[in-house]
Write a structure and sequence with these properties.
Chain lengths: 188, 311
């Protein structure tokens, strides 16, 4: 999607394999915001997400000698975070109860965003609309639009075909467009 | 750093829409790209500091040497002559200069910028051939006394995972990789130095003249500087010996290096007991061994390679 970024990450991957700590730090800074958001989508809990992302980076540093330069280190990180997140959820059954609670709280909180739309910032509305997309579609869309992953990378992380990834993004954009048109109509 | 916000709509998506709708889709694409991500740069830096701390605690940060040979081999096929020359130059500049002081000897090294380093027996010093041009970093395993001249680059000693950073100053570093229990000690006689673990260099301790500080692997910060007997600590420079509350095991290793002998200790029980001794003049190894054995109630005998101490 963005060849320059891909190239940059590939260079960092080579340097990390050679134990270059500066490259590792750059890599961390680059991926951290996206990975935290991605982990939170699974764990619904900031502390667990934080731990999961830390574990993922410790893991990649400890196995830096096995980094495959031909594969995207970025999709490797997202895949690791996804697996660790799923493990964390499974391990802690109590957390599932929390998840339901948070979901409920969140939906209560956002119960009528359209009505208050005049006071609300448009970007908040967009964030809300994105959060209302079906889980899988939302994840694909966020990976693409927030984190700039290529279709191929998303396909690898989410176990989908690149074509399905494209469909998800297209459908997400359609939904968002409809919301946006509706919003503009209401304001007239 | 990438900025996904700026990315234009991928072709694979453009193809799915017709003209009037496409413009609206482009708007939505742009809007979604301008949304904030979840963490601020400050949060990211904090998380990175946590990660450093964790890797430091597990001892995972100790780097492995870089591999450049593989890269060269891969490309040599195509540009044999050019690469060979390039490789030779690269190797020449990348392979550091190494100074090894044999057991039983001492050495003084003068670096290209005029900095002098007095090295105790058995110490190893390593520095880049580009020293002075790109950096002023040296690696030390052993004990050395540094007299650093002022220069544009800070002078940095990398001593088995500890970092000592200075500008113009004089100080002693003791850091033997075969004595991890004693860690790295830094003593300053002139000027100021910053002392920190390699991967937690944001929060160093500052040592002033006459102060000593110690750091051991897996500690997050060197000890608070305290007054030191600098005269005793740097006594080795005049071939003198001062042991203050030093373990017998560590003393014997000092003797091995200074006199280039092997000293076996047959009884483990006394190895970690401490001893204080002061030799103002050069002494023979036998007279030091006589004293140690007298104090600890031990005996010693000569072997083919050196000495054996027993009860």
């Amino acid at each position: 999607m963005n060849p320059k970024t891909d190239e940059h990450i590939a260079t960092l991957a080579v340097r990390i394999r050679r134990s270059d700590r500066k490259a590792f730090d750059d890599f961390f800074r680059m991926l951290y915001p996206g990975l935290i958001r991605f982990a939170q989508g699974y764990t619904r809990d900031n502390t667990t997400a934080y731990d999961v992302v830390q574990d993922a980076f410790v893991n990649v540093w400890q196995r830096r000698d096995q980094i495959d330069e031909k594969q995207s280190l970025r999709s490797y990180m997202y895949t690791t975070v996804k697996n660790l997140s799923l493990n964390a959820i499974r391990k802690d059954a109590a957390l599932t109860i929390d998840t339901d609670l948070t979901n409920e709280l969140q939906s209560n909180h956002n119960i009528n965003p359209i009505e208050e739309s005049d006071q609300k910032d448009l970007s908040e509305l967009f964030t809300y609309w994105i959060s209302q997309l079906p889980d899988r579609r939302r994840e694909v869309f966020e990976l693409s639009r927030y984190d700039g992953l290529s279709h191929e990378e998303i396909a690898e992380v989410m176990n989908l075909s690149p074509k399905t990834v494209n469909n998800h993004i297209v459908l997400a954009l359609k939904t968002l467009k409809d919301h946006y048109q509706q919003y503009k109509e209401n304001r007239k | 750093m990438s900025n996904p916000n700026k990315q234009s709509l991928p072709e694979s998506i453009v193809r799915k829409f017709d003209d009037p709708e496409l413009d609206q889709i482009r708007d939505v694409w742009k809007m979604a790209g301008s949304l904030k991500t979840s963490s601020t740069p400050e949060e990211t830096e904090r998380a990175l500091a946590d990660l450093h701390l964790r890797l430091e605690m597990t001892g995972e940060m100790n780097s492995k040497p870089e591999i450049i040979i593989g890269w060269i081999q891969k490309h040599a096929r195509y540009m044999v002559a050019a690469v060979a020359l390039f490789a030779a130059l690269t190797l020449f500049f990348l392979i550091p200069k190494t100074v090894v002081v044999p057991f039983g000897e001492m050495a003084t090294v003068e670096l290209p910028d005029g900095t002098t380093i007095e090295m105790n027996s058995g110490s190893v010093l390593r520095y880049s051939r580009l020293y002075r041009f790109t950096n002023r970093t040296v690696e030390l395993n052993g004990e050395a006394y540094f007299s650093v001249v002022d220069h544009a680059h800070p002078f940095i000693v990398d001593a088995n995972g500890a970092i000592v950073e200075v500008t113009g100053t004089r100080f002693n570093v003791r850091s033997w990789d075969d004595e991890p229990e004693n860690g790295v000690t830094v003593t300053v006689t002139e000027g100021e130095v910053l002392f920190s673990p390699q991967f937690l260099s944001d929060n160093p301790v500052t040592l002033r003249p006459g102060e000593i500080s110690r750091w051991k692997l897996r500690e997050t910060r060197p000890s608070t500087p305290e007054p030191a007997e600098t005269e005793e600590i740097t006594a080795w420079r005049d071939f003198r010996f001062v042991f203050r509350d030093q373990t017998l095991a560590s003393i014997l290793r000092d003797l091995e290096r200074r006199y280039d002998v092997a000293i076996e200790l047959d009884t483990d029980r006394v190895a970690s007991t401490t001893l204080t001794a002061y030799y103002s003049q050069q002494v023979s190894l036998e007279s030091v061994l006589d004293d140690i054995c007298a104090v600890k109630g031990l005996r010693y005998t000569q072997t083919t390679r050196g000495y054996r101490i027993f009860r």
